[in-house]
Sequence to fold (699 residues):
Amino acid sequence: MTTPPPAVQFLATDGSFAPSAGSDEYLPYIEALSDEQHEQFYRDMAVIRRFDTECTNLQRQGQMALWPPSHGQEAAQVGSARATRRQDHIFPSYREHVVAKIRGVDIMGIVELMRGTTLGGWDVNDPKNGNFHGYTLVLGTQTLHATGYGMGINFDGAVGTGNADTDTAVIVYFGDGSTSEGDVNEAMVFAASYQTPTVFFLQNNQWAISVPVSTQARVPLYLRPRGFGIPSVQVDGNDVLASYAVSAKHLDDARNGLGPSYIEAQTYRIGAHTTSDDPTRYQNDEQLAYWVARDPIVRFEAFLKNKGASEAFFADVEQEASDFAADIRRRTLELPNPTIDNLFDHVYSEPHPLITEQKAWLANYEASFGGDK
Amino acid sequence: MAVEELPLAKAINAGLRKAMTDNDKVLLMGEDIGTLGGVFRVTEGIKAEFGDKRVLDTPLAESGIVGTAIGLALRGYRPVCEIQFDGFVYPAFNQITTQLAKLTNRGRGTLTMPVVIRIPYGAHIGAIEHHMESPEAYFAHTAGLRVVSPSTPNDAYWMIQESIESNDPVIFFEPKSRYWPKGPVDLDASASPLHASRVARTGTDATLVGHGAMVTMMLQAAELAASEGVSLEVIDLRSLSPVDYAPILDSVTKTGRLVVCQEAAGFVSVGSEIAATVAEKAFYSLQAPVIRVSGFDVPMPAPRIENLYLPDVDRILEAVDRSLAF
Fold:
């Protein structure tokens, strides 16, 4: 096993509280957590895993064009998302389903994307969506958007004022494959140059579809940003407490005007890259078993049980997860197909004669079949 | 009426200053555009006037420039990016075509992308590889982008401001060989909207259509033709996406003949698209096939033989002769 030991960890694999060397500066964030917050972390992870299974099933039943599962990466995502503040902005890749949910997005928007009824899914400018920007499928492009957004925050003077409710950070999610893209590296250049309040959150799930991370990098990926002048840390991404504390610290630093930073969350994609993938062609059993033994939900469940969480709590979460998944299934099957308007109406925000002409032509053409009764 | 004689480069400079004065969300970003004023000095003096938070000398990374401009637009800014030369836009092609052009559509009416990308383009300057290309077709082919190119200082002054006011992304192609000659600029009122084409010279025997530096060449051709008794109408496209077809179709209805002129290679070009559309919409008015006068379908050549590649007045007139012979 070539995976190096994570730098920051609070929970051992068996769920016992065992802070790693080098985790001291993050400990205050852990100590400030309440039992209710702990239970919320667990609830977030368990509900999204059930959702994820439901969506995979829906794809297998022909109800979705594609599903990218997040199975195994729940702790990295929940910890970092729960560390954001209301005013922060989130730039996702395309697997951060629970981050969307935590920020307030109705994640039917994600289902609509993956079923194939829209190219968008939610309105980032609607306050109830928690500044959660659109999913981005072209790898790494969103890291530049997040950096440019952070440049704007700086120009607006919305960092380093000491006001915890208005100083604003940006967190951007990307994967180990993306780190080889030019855009991710250009984003680090710009972020360092303009000292943007950007937290680069790398989920290293060890695989870019079928290519192992060792093909992307011959050094641990968290060392790469240091060459750009960006401080970085490696965290056990399957430990929700570690993910939370490290993210909270670096988001605070960003809001306080200390510039960008970079977190590598070591995690593992337990399932396929997407439902179009067959991981049995490239994953090896030994590595899979290693990571299954480090399942983030099992580990946190053991932690909560050690702390005395009740059976009723776990039963309640189980019920919520089932209800949530059932509701998603029902609403997925009720989704209407898009219309002609969807094809033409928002290509431009202002009138465009070619689009107007083509829309009218298609409407007439369709009507010529007498279907518009 | 305040009219000033300005070269096209200075007219863009004046238009940028006006837009930045009117709206403090407008900012400029690009390589060497601040302290140096850009390699063509189009942004000369603007950093000194507006400061380094409005005029950004960015790191040398085109995808980074456009990608961060998208982020700034999401934050409410109206960035104007400069790409140093036509042939250096390709590192940003992904951000322009998959993100900038598509975010408004993805947003279903909730997002706008008011980003302008200024690109000096075209030849006639004796420069080495990648410095004299005409890549406008790539962008005109991409849904979600607006593509324009002024040919006069007056249009440059107004069209840059109208592009900045647009809530859609605009690729703004600047004919670099026309940067220096002066022309009148009416500082009080815009002559026409951003996407209108313009009849630059009226005539009755055949119609010439083109954009950018080619407009000057078409006007020279028309002048020569007139001395031989041939009356050519010249239309300056101004906008390559969308194309304003009404003046073109009106003209072809009158003259019955069309010659489309462009520096770009002809295969799958803006000129090809116009030829096809006119053939579709004005078939019964045409007295001759639509003829294209284009660059060849080869790489932009070394500058010592650029004149072999580039359409010139003689090649335009040769095409007119062929058209009139039908």
The CA atoms of residues 60 and 261 of chain B lie 34 Å apart. The longest strand of chain B covers residues 258-265. Chain B touches chain A through 46 residues (CB under 8 Å).
